[in-house]
Design a protein that fits this description.
single chain; 214 residues; alpha+beta; Rieske Iron-sulfur Protein; 4-stranded antiparallel sheet; 2 helices; 25% helix; disordered N terminus; binds FE2/S2 (inorganic) cluster
Length: 214
C-alpha cells in the first residue's frame, strides 16, 4: 500500500473510531439521564409509600373503627351498619385526632360482629356493647386472616372460620377455638358505643397473631 493510500485508510479508521466514540458517549448520557429520572421516580414512590405516624400502632382507647374492605372501605362503622347475627364486618382502628387509619400492621385488622346478647356467655356479654363484639381478624394458628362466617363443622351455629387449616372460633364464647389446630382463642378488643358510633374502649385482651409460621 502507498503512503497516500495508507494515510487515507488510517484517517477513515480514526473517523470511524471518533463516530463510535461519540455514539457511545451519547448513549451513556442518555442512559444516565434515564437512570436519574427513574431514580427520582423511585424516591418519589418511596416517599409516597411511607407509613403515616401511628398507622402501625395497636388499637388504642378512643380509636374509631372504619371498614377495611368493600364499597365502604375507609368509612366509619356505625352500630346501624351491623346485621344482627352476622356476618362480621372487617375493620381497621382509626386515630380520631389525626384520622390516621392503623392499617400499616395486618395484626390490627378486626372482625366486628353483632349478636343477640342472650347468646353470649357472661364474660363475653360483659365486654359487648349492645351485643357488638370486636376480635382480632388474625388466626391464632399460623396467622392467616380469618375470613369466613359459616356453620361450624361441630355444631349448628355459625362461627368465624380460618380457611387455611379450618380453625373455628365461637364469638359468643370469647372466640374460643371450637375446631381445628389453633392453640388459643382470638384476641378480643373491648368496644364502647356513643350516639350510635363505635369506638375502642381498651387494648387487645389476649395475644394477637399466629402461634407458628404459616
Ligand atoms: S392459620 Fe388459621 S387455621 Fe392455620
Amino acid at each position: 500500500m502507498s503512503n497516500a493510500s495508507s494515510n487515507i485508510a488510517s484517517s477513515s479508521s480514526r473517523e470511524a473510531e471518533t463516530c463510535a466514540c461519540a455514539e457511545q458517549t451519547r448513549r451513556a448520557l442518555l442512559l444516565g439521564a434515564l437512570a436519574t429520572t427513574a431514580c427520582l421516580g423511585c424516591s418519589a414512590v418511596a416517599r409516597a409509600g411511607e407509613d403515616a405516624p401511628g398507622s402501625d400502632e395497636r388499637p388504642q382507647k378512643g380509636d374509631l373503627l372504619v371498614f377495611s374492605e368493600g364499597d365502604s372501605e375507609g368509612k366509619l362503622i356505625k352500630a346501624a351498619d351491623l346485621r344482627l347475627g352476622g356476618p362480621p364486618v372487617h375493620a381497621w382502628p382509626q386515630d380520631p385526632k389525626s384520622s390516621v387509619v392503623r392499617s400499616a400492621s395486618r395484626l390490627n385488622e378486626l372482625l366486628i360482629i353483632k349478636l343477640d346478647p342472650a347468646e353470649l356467655d357472661e364474660q363475653t356479654k360483659a365486654r359487648a356493647v349492645d351485643g357488638i363484639l370486636a376480635y382480632s381478624a388474625i388466626c391464632a394458628h399460623a396467622g392467616c386472616p380469618v375470613t369466613a362466617w359459616v356453620k361450624s363443622d361441630v355444631g349448628e351455629k355459625d362461627v368465624f372460620k380460618c380457611m387455611c387449616h379450618n380453625s373455628e372460633y365461637d364469638p359468643r364464647e370469647g372466640a374460643q377455638v371450637v375446631f381445628g389446630p389453633a392453640p388459643r382463642r382470638l384476641a378480643a378488643l373491648p368496644l364502647a358505643l356513643a350516639d350510635g358510633s363505635l369506638s375502642v374502649a381498651g387494648g387487645f385482651i389476649g395475644k394477637v397473631g399466629g402461634a407458628q409460621p404459616g
